[in-house]
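Task card 7
Instruction: Convert sequence to structure tokens.
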Amino acid sequence: MNVYKPEQTYRASTLKVEHSKSTWQSALGKLPQVHALQSWVWGEFKSRWGWSMHPHLMSIAESSWEPVGASMILKRAIPRTPFCILYVPKGPLFNYSDAFLRQKMLGELERVAREQQAIFIKIDPDVIKSWGLEPERPSPVGKKFVQDLQDRGWRYSLEQIQFKNTVTLNLELSEDELMAAMKQKTRYNIRLAGRKGITIRHGTDADFEIIGKMYAQTAERDGFAIRPFAYYRDIWHQFYNEKIAHPIIAEYEGKPIAAVILVKFGDTTLYMYGASTNEERNRMPTYLLQWEAIRWAKAQGCKTYDFWGAPDTFDDSDRMWGVWRFKAGFNGEVVRHIGAWDYPVRPFLYWIYTVALPKYLAFLKR
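Output:
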């Protein structure tokens, strides 16, 4: 993490477009709370799927390259208009506890949005609101940042694109400690899978085709929408080539029946994609697979394993309740984030885009 003296913060420069991949990667290595969705690879990938990437860096002073902030801004043009929308997935990146930098970064994002003729800009920072279930332990930094957003006219977004809540494991514990902390039924299912003939192997990019087919089965079974396979194949290959993605496959008698694609970035491994067939589910392959994923992340030197998603409300009415019951068995910590926030540069057009148009489309579907 980059270290600087508090009195230097007033010299922070404006956000400036960065054209060098190596410079971007170097900068992210000096910043806290980095995320794969702020990577150069993710920006390039989204540029092939309807967006354009606009990576911006902020340094302490004009004469020295000391990065204190980064924002991979994605831009989507609105056809037949001069306008666009801007999105910063899991960003911006900077030290959120620094009050000056919070104001500076938000002001710069607002400036960029006006210059780009955006209807609005959406940010989705990994800022923690609270930890735990009941009672929740609030984050003072999250509370201050939300207040900053509200004071500057940002609005809690009606469209939450990324998961707002998640579950994390502390990988600085030993394997024995991690196993002992799990719920008894989860430990039992991990061992049961081994006894019932489930084997685990670490895959390559050659496995992405079969994982894609399993992912489609998972979506159909669990009732969630997915994109065309070409979309996933694109990012999986790009992440794999950059040594960011790692596939792991569970098999029974040599046949793949479940898989995960892990995304390692910084000191965190994300359980970003999970898939399984409808076969041999009684052998509990996903439990052993998840345990191997955790062990792999720990062996890579990561400090955190992120299960990538948890319910918005922790009761059986939430669409993720079944997924949550599985993840809860590993006894990670519930982490709640502040969610996505929008800055409406053009309030009337923002209302049309976020309220009137969705209602009209819903009416047409009915």
